[in-house]
Design goal:
The structure is a single chain. With 107 residues, the chain is mainly alpha-helical. The protein has one helix and no strands.
Length: 107
Amino acid sequence: MKKKEVDEERKDVEQKKRERDLLNKTVAIEEEQFHKDAELDTVLDNERTKLRNQVVMYRQLIGKLHDEITELERDKFKYAKAAGDANQQYYDSLEQVKVKTSLITKL
């Protein structure tokens, strides 16, 4: 009966060794996955920070472009008025030339 008990003990020991090896492999796989996840978290945090910085930069650019558009619209109205005034002055001068030409021809 002792031999039977020894054999059973050996079988139990072998079974426990297989379970231990399986658990060690599982732990190793989980640790590897944990490190991959931690690395991915770092990459995603860096990407998030980069995107936030880009958003800030684009908001600043939008503000700058908005100011430029406003300035260009002011210039448009200013030069449109100046062009209208110059056009009016041209037609006034042209009318004066016609009147003077008419007077000269009458003389």
